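--- STAGE predict ---
source: upstream dedup step, 1 unique chain passed
mode: sequence only
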Amino acid sequence: MMIPENKKEEIRETADIVEVVGDYVKLKKSGSGFVGLCPFHNEKTPSFHVTPNMGIYKCFGCGESGDVFSFVMAMEGVGFPEALRSLADRYGIDIPDEHVEGDDERTKKREGVYHALKYAGLFFYRHLLETEDAEKARAYLKKRGYDKSIIRKFGLGYAPKNSQLLKAAEKEGIPEEYLAEADLVKPSNRGDGFYDTFRDRLMFPIFNPSGKVIAFAGRILDEEKKTAKYVNSAQTLVYNKSEVVYGVNFSKNDIRKEGEVILVEGYTDVISMHQHGVKNVVSSSGTSLTAGQIKILQRYGNRIVMIYDADSAGQKAMERGMNIALEQGMEVFLMQLPDGEDPDSFVKQFGQESFLDYKRKNAEDFVTFSIHKAEKEGRMESPGDRTAAIKSVLESIALIPEELDRQVYVQHLHQQTQKYRKGSDRELFQLLDKIVADQQKRSRYKERNQSAPSAPVPHSVGDEPPLQQSEYPESTPAQKKKPHYEKEIIRLMLQFGERMIKFIGHNVAEDHFEDDELREFYRDIIKRHIEEEEVTVQHYTNREKPFPTLVGDIVLERYSVSEKYVQKTGNDVKKDRNPFKTAKYSMKPLRLYFLERKRRELTERMKKSEDEEKSKLMKSITKLQKEITRIQKISADELFEDPDFLKNDSSASVSGRFEYKMKGDK
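--- STAGE serialize ---
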């Protein structure tokens, strides 16, 4: 059974595209919309625009565009029905729960994996609350001080022994294929079926930013067992551990609010801090921090406070994470808790206010922290150790992408180390320049090696081809630009409806369009208009390709007059004060360039023709030239008559209107 149209519209009207896109892109207000770095291609300057009043997005770098549904489909890799359900769940809208087929096998498999993971999350949660064999898990959580509300919020659960998940899922009709793809079950070594991946473990569901279960971590309950303390889901269709941050779905709004994210090491650190009111906290999901994880955190805030254990492994992890965060352009602070404490134990013992007060007094920028650490470890005493410590900090500063930021931190390092060096900051800047040059040289060498031809990479297990770097290009190949006046005509028809379609349709033929996609768009609009069907931006945003991309390209503007300018000058520069006038000044170049194309075409034919045909073609070319000259000499107002309904509408004649004019037009 299909999801009813009225439900689709309810979801569309309820879903906030800025909020949904904001889960994946750090957006900044710009005019009447928002801008950010495009999630569909690598870029350093924001070209991704979201226009909330129209409910659409558009990247002016790679051309991707669409509405809130297409964005969820792209980000979560699901089909339209699953995107609808995801948004409905998010905004509390009830829709029928029937299974809907995916668009293709890959989409169907991905949706099946999501379904299996969601079922497993509920299965583990219910077992924790309801079964006798979960008593040990409940006792462990009680000992840690977790109440029912925090257990429910984080979806904690218990994985029973003896492959009970596999048996229960099969009864619910979930195929083994989806359970295996989700890494919830593994094939038996004996070759006689599958067994549960997680058995007799406390379960931590791992969510994506929009709150969907994508993986699990299972902790042992019997500390004497000789087995791994944690078992984590393997990489799957929906889970890439290097691009997942634990707790970000719960913390993202608080990170935005504070402008800061606190990074801790463990799952239980995150949960305990949330329970005690410190909510802008996440962990790196049991892995070393990666650039992919930092990019996720940057969507919500640009300042990071790292808290790692005081042991050597924790300190090495902190240094690696610090450099990765600096390289991605984050403002990095580091903090060490008192001996014997971790975030979990500290916040339980001393509470929220004490933790925040301790952070205010003890969180240090990475330069200050590194120098203080070197001092505590005695590495600022001998000249050789001092030089190594200062050079190590400079190597971290060199990773920062913005030159101004690098300069500020070098000056700060100079102040922190002046008592040891007695010189100016010039030597530090000279050494920094050398380090930056060496890093750039190594980077270029690495890029050359990566771009060199190599042996073909064999396909990975299953039907997933290996990810090629070329799938995420820095920039897309140059394509022929679509004529602005052709896009204007489509825009006016979409935005002003029936009257505009009649007016333009009376003066324009489909062969006037040079661009193939825009010609097809025009043809479709006219066809739908004749058949009295909907012609709106929303309709075409939900159509098959290339319509959604074209809508974004046609309707969204890269630059707009800022609200500050309007407030400062009192001049509200409005487009389309007289849309029919705008249409005339777009139809004029459309007709003119159409005639010029015809003239060039006949001229080419004439070169290859015989006498009699050549004479006929010459007459046609002369006639075309006369018409071209006539059009060039008169204004668009003279070229196209006002429609009858406009002649009687005094409000349509407004001065100061926007017009698309050809060069030389008066």
